Amino acid sequence: KKPVIKSSISWEQRKSVLVQKLLNQFPDNKSTILKPSRSDSTQRQSNDIHVFVDNSNISIGFIDHIKASRGLKTVNISRPVLSFRALSLILERGRPAVRRVLVGSAPFTREMIEAKEIGYETSVLERVEKDRPDNGQRSASSGSDTAANKIRRRKVEQGVDEILHMKICESLLDHNPSTVVLASGDGNIAEYSPGFFKAIERCLDRNWRVEVVAFKNSLNSVYRNKEFRKKWKGKFRVILLDDFAEDMLS
To answer: Ranges of Polar residues compositional bias (predicted)?
Structure first.
């Protein structure tokens, strides 16, 4: 039987702990954390945010962290459930959200359902079959690498990143500069677009602020580049989710 990892306390208890952590880590957001603001479509505010969630990147980072923190990195366990309410609290911190978008791939998971319930625009794409290299192990006896050279047909994500890139560009076109909150550590070039890093550069070039929120183990090195961080100091920040992982566990 697969080990099951879940929180031993209620959401209200976890929320109380999480709010205190957020107050300590984000004192500038104290007023909105304690008294969340609602976005007014007729009157934009300087602290408006546009939230975009790459579900796979966050979910995989979360699962890997939960397993590693318990010494279960190589153990096959039941999938830990991520509390999207907790994640949204970390991302939004009570600030008025003009847009709240989640994009992911089937199957429709519990966190996706929760995201939809609390008002996120949720797009869940079917996976497509594609040929991919088999991540086999090198044969110890022969020293050959035949397994790694094999091609397997498997179902993979397609179009998730590109839809998020498009949604971000919509915000740039349709709204005055404020803050993009991107929940994804992905910085690679996508299959059909230049990738999240290029989307972030577009935001910064147009006087937007950007927060990249991700787990350390899924944060692309481009976001750690010293020259990039120096160039956009005060406009760009990285927020790591590692310290909040247990609060995000349902």
So the answer is: 136-147
Residue 193 sits in which domain range? 11-127+157-248
How many domains does the chain contain in total? 1
Between the alpha carbon of residue 158 and those of residues 60, 131, 155, 190, the distances in Å are 16, 13, 9, 10
pLDDT of residue 154: 77
Whole-number pLDDT of residue 75: 81
Q: Distance from CA of residue 241 to its chain's centroid?
A: 9
- 103 part of a folded domain: yes
* Runs of H (alpha helix) within the chain: 11-25, 30-34, 55-69, 84-92, 110-117, 146-149, 160-174, 196-205, 226-231
At 97, which CATH number? 3.40.50.1010
Nearest residue to 195 via CA among 171, 220, 231: 220
Q: What angle do CA 221, 155, 118 make, to 5 degrees?
A: 70
Eight-class DSSP state of 75:
S
| pTM over the 0.85 mark | yes
